[in-house]
Recover the amino acids of this structure.
């Protein structure tokens, strides 16, 4: 009888341990604030576009109030704990700020666009990769995608920015669009990679003097992306955290409701929220 009990206990322990390991490897996205994300993917913890400054520590970009306009809801120590990789779409302060540079281990694996190579060398990061196109990192295919951070003269002012696509065995494909307006190139990327999830920066931001030229997608452009998104679920972020972002979670939700786009298609997370993929 004792052998039967011990055998059952061992089987139960093995089942629980396997279940915990399986749960740990399940992919998820956590919105930290603005465009800062923590992605659990293929057993790795990936930090995207860290803006870790306290409320009001960065200058105003619209003459309304200093940025960010809200505090972090997740402690910085939890954000950076056990990190495997940092992805940076570009180095504007709302995507990589001074606090992030001071906080992150300088030897952390960091993937960025070639245009930011000198920046990260100056900040003394020793394990940075200026990704031209694609690479395999720990079983994850990472593709860098060119993006357009505005149009016309504004595009010249805003400089280079990128997005990333993550692909791995038994994992959903994720397209992180980055700071970008809606273009035919993004439509082509969706068709090429056929993502399961598209993370889009939907804040409708604009800079002073060019208020009629959005530098990231607004309500209308996000709806255009959704119309071309195929079977992908769209996760909209980059809202309610900066003074030059005019699209809000509320206005985006209202536009989606007008077009009968449900929450099963468009996910608009609150700061700190975790989305299981």
């Amino acid at each position: 009888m004792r052998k039967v009990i011990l055998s059952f206990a061992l089987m139960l322990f093995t089942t629980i341990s396997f279940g915990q390991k399986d749960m740990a490897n399940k992919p998820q996205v956590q919105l930290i604030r603005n465009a800062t994300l923590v992605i659990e993917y293929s057993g790795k913890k990936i930090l995207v576009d860290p803006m870790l400054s306290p409320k009001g520590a960065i200058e105003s970009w619209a003459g309304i109030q200093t940025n960010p306009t809200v505090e972090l809801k997740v402690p910085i120590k939890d954000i950076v704990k056990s990190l495997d990789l940092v992805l940076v779409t570009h180095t504007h302060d709302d995507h990589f700020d001074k606090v992030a540079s001071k906080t992150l281990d300088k030897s952390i694996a960091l993937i960025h666009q070639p245009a930011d190579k000198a920046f990260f060398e100056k900040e003394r990061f020793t394990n940075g990769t200026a990704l031209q196109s694609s690479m395999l990192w720990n079983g994850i295919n990472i593709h860098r995608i060119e993006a357009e951070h505005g149009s016309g003269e504004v595009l010249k002012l805003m400089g280079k920015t990128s997005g990333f696509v993550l692909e791995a065995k038994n994992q959903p494909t994720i397209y992180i669009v980055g700071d970008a307006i809606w273009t035919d190139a993004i439509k082509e990327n969706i068709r090429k990679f056929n993502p399961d999830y598209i993370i889009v920066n939907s804040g409708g931001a604009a800079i002073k003097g060019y208020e009629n030229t959005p530098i990231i997608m607004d309500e209308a452009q996000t709806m255009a992306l959704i119309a071309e998104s195929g079977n992908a679920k769209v996760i909209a972020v980059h809202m309610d955290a900066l003074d030059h972002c005019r699209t809000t979670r509320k206005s985006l939700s209202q536009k989606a409701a007008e077009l009968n786009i449900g929450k099963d298609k468009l996910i608009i997370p609150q700061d700190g929220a975790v989305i299981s993929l």
In short: The chain has one domain: 27-276.
